[in-house]
Structure prediction request, 633 residues.
Amino acid sequence: MELQVVAIVLRHQPVLNALPHLGPLISNFLGPDPNLSLTKACELGSTQLLDWIWACSPTTEANRTSRWTLSNYLRSEPNYHRYQFYEGIQVAARKGDVHMVKWFFDHFRGCEVPSEAVAAAAHKGHLPVLKFLFENDAGRGCKHKWKRVELENDEWVDSVPVMPDNWNGPGSVVRWGDNALHSAVAASQVEVARWLYANIPHQTKENVMHGIVERAVVNGDFEIAELLLPPGRKIADYVGTLMSPRAIEGFLERGFLKEKKGAAAAAIFISARQGNLDLMKRIAAEHPKPPRGKNSEWLQFWEYAMQKACESGDVDMIKWVFEHPTGQLLCKQMKADDILERFDKLLPHAATGGHVEALQYLVEKGCTDKYAHAMVNAARKGHLNCIEWLLEHTYQYHPSGSADRVVLEAAKLGFLDILKFLHAPRYATEEMSTKRIKVEETGACENLRVASWFRWNFPQHVPSQDCIWSYPKNLFDTLLFIEANYPNVFTLEFRRRIKSNIADEYSKGSEFLITKWLGEKYPGRPSETTELLGPLKLLHHSINAGCAAEGNIERERVPQRFHQLPFVSMTSWRFLAALLPRASKVAFNKLEHIGHNTAGASAFFLKAKISPLSLQTADFLPHVVDTQLDDAV
Prediction:
């Protein structure tokens, strides 16, 4: 095959007329990659490109080129030929390219258009593609049989045309399935859904139709829902706690939210999430009296609405949900909850969004931040304005709280303005000095911009050897920084521990270069004590930083062979066992023995001065753990 531009250029070179093979040769050199699959080419949207790939593909195995290319197999390998049709026509249907779909029908024969292609076109609203498939379906008018399709995350039933044995065209057949109508309804493609329901040769079972109607109701597409209703059912039967904002308006107009209080409660929450206070008021007017009981669905969704209002910082909405009779009842119950402290937990929601005015209102209503959860959330998002306000207006923080985590989070995430503010002379109290030292001796090295600032402004504070237990993504950068700036930390044992952990368990991607660098400069393995105490210190660091409680432990860095360790029913022991890096064989056997023995595990934690019920106050003294491990076993 010859490119047009090549033909034009050669036409003006009479001396080359004696070389007719030169044009195709140059064209092959300049043309598309011979390893470009037909499916990938479809993404580019050019049928001319498809023509080129097709023309370059030999029709028999004997005619394949000596060099391996994908184009060798498109037309000479029957299974690959059908595979490219299966995948390529899905791309064309999803793009809504009727010309490309027609190209596939013109060039392939005896193939099946998968129902996934039909569903893709339906989801995007490509009715012309669906009509083309329907009109050119070689199985149209034939008897159909049901065939279940089961994929990894989905399953449905197809109607497959029954064709003669060894049928190979002309044309191709189309598989019509439940997923097409469901996809159209899910995407609110009402016109497409109506056409599919009226035309495709597939009868949807009633139990499947219930799910499709429910989705239409959730979307607020009541017209199509009424069309698809199974006999004896009505729209109200499908009204639940799932709904779109558009559906809420329809529910109100039809009186559904008056009939179904649970749905009305969910609608309050959904409207709060959308920031629609007027709609919330209209819904609440359907049920003006506060509910009875502490655990009613209405109160639960009202609390969710409170949280969303605080997150958005919409003070008018916050005031309304608080001052409404239901809100007043809920606030009373939340304040009485001394265990979960649900009322105080509203404050972190406002701090996350950086909403100082919302914080002010909540504090006036009695919210406190004694455990610094609001300040921590503000630090994680870089909201210095919230931190300033909270420090000025909230009460003294609880001694065992997490105020020190504010500095730690700001350091880890690189919010230097927050760190500078907290290190200003006005906050140079003994408490804040302790927090400074904690950060400067632990997590600051994970963010080099912050670490450099600490190094310059507080050279007297040196990071501890636990400063990178969490292994940041910029581990190599961090190691180079510590090596140059804190040589007393970068000890031989420290270097060997880092190298051992990466080489044994944590290596992924480019980290093998860190191992190579450390191995060349510092050969050898760390001591057995270091390998055993490592996970204990990591657990302690994670819990103090709030990682364990929030489920933020990086499980991909947990050694696979410890995932199967039989854990006892203690959260503390479960975290410890899951976080173990590869320790020495002796140490592992000791810990594994404890893992099978609840009494032994309890003894281990008690002798190590660790409370199994409250690790937040645990004091991981290395010499205590080291000397008491044998006694615990």
